[in-house]
Specification:
This protein is of the alpha/beta class and 319 residues long. It has helices spanning 20-28, 31-41, 60-64, 94-107, 169-175, 180-191, 195-199, 204-217, 220-280, 285-293, 296-305, 312-317; strands at residues 50-53, 72-76, 81-87, 122-128, 143-147, 162-168. It folds into 2 domains: 20-218, no CATH class; 258-317, no CATH class. It contains 12 helices and 6 strands. It has a 6-stranded mixed β-sheet, sandwiched between helices. The radius of gyration is 31 Å and the shape is elongated.
Length: 319
């Protein structure tokens, strides 16, 4: 049997590089490609070199872990940590989760009693397969960089300990504003199955990543694990949708019941108000307020008393 060339496209197509299992396999095993991706995102800063991938392994329980993001944590030549992630689903609270893991990577560098001077900056690079900032006023921006800066004087930065780069991939592709190597990486993630688009890219790291993707796609075990990961994500999405639909249905039912109860209460209050007025004359503002705030059970009790009570006060107080 003739072996499939490493750079040949499998008959059933390439794996999706946005599948976070495939993404981690693609970059955690190729530090030079990962450095090229990081430098493309941070094109306005000095280039980095990936010295060490701190979590290269993908544990079996991570594949099926529906709420786990398969990130890549790397150290550069200056000791700085980079948390690189492909995030394929949006969940709340997104910002809290992302900030938490960056802060944990920062605090995890030192033990109790150690000097803070040993802390190295932590930089997040999160590639999103969804629009995070989908408000109309943010429709024309897809690349973001968040730092600790003063609100009134944003040119003043507190420090470089934490930074988060975000790329909304599909939005960036739609806008077409991105230039240079980052634009080529976005094309890979968004158009990996389109031969004409891929052939138009002459940036070597992206072509190398495409060749590696073809090799991964031709490997039966990698394809199987990518499917397992995709199924876990799909199961999670279905479970969340079902839970949301159940919550909406329960909310509607509760709302209808509450509405019916409220309607009955208002009807009973109006009827009791008419009876009290007919029996005792015009009602005071205090009495009207008391009727408007009463529960249905209270209104029923007061209605039972109205025929025998000598006064409005006796209706309410029972004597």
């Amino acid at each position: 049997m003739t072996a499939t060339p490493t750079n040949a496209v499998p008959a059933d197509g390439l794996l999706d590089p946005k599948n976070d299992y495939v993404f981690k396999k693609l970059f955690a095993e190729a530090p030079a490609l990962l450095a090229a991706l990081i430098n493309a995102v941070r094109s306005d800063e000095p280039p980095v070199e990936v010295v060490e991938v701190l979590n290269p392994r993908i544990e079996p329980d991570e594949i099926k872990g529906k709420f786990i993001v398969l990130d890549i944590l790397v150290k550069d030549q200056h000791g700085r940590l980079f948390n690189v992630e492909m995030q394929i689903r949006r969940f709340d609270p997104w910002s809290a989760r992302s900030t938490y893991y960056l802060a944990r990577a920062l605090s995890g560098q030192i033990s109790s009693g150690e000097d803070y001077y040993s802390l190295k900056p932590v930089i997040g690079i999160h590639l999103l397969d969804f629009d995070l900032f989908d408000q109309p006023e943010n429709a024309n921006q897809a690349q973001w960089c968040f730092e600790l800066r003063d609100r009134n004087n944003p040119q003043v930065r507190l420090g470089d300990e934490l930074k988060l780069h975000i790329i909304e991939l599909s939005k960036a592709d739609r806008l077409g504003h991105t230039q240079g190597p980052l634009a080529d990486w976005i094309k890979l993630f968004e158009h990996w199955q389109e031969d004409c688009t891929m052939q138009s890219i002459d940036y070597p790291p992206v072509q190398q990543a495409l060749d590696k993707l073809k090799g991964l796609s031709a490997d039966a075990e990698t394809r199987r694990m990518a499917f397992v990961r995709e199924r876990a994500m799909r199961d999670e999405s279905s479970a969340l949708r079902a839970a949301t639909e159940r919550g909406l249905q329960q909310g509607m039912q509760q709302g209808m019941q509450q509405g019916m109860q409220q309607g009955k209460r208002e009807e009973a209050a109006a009827m009791l108000s008419r009876l009290l007025t007919k029996r005792f004359g015009p009602l005071s503002e205090e009495t009207r307020v008391r009727l408007s705030e009463a529960t249905l059970d209270q209104l029923d009790l007061w209605a039972d008393r109205i025929l025998d009570a000598p006064s409005v006060t006796a209706v309410f107080d029972g004597h």
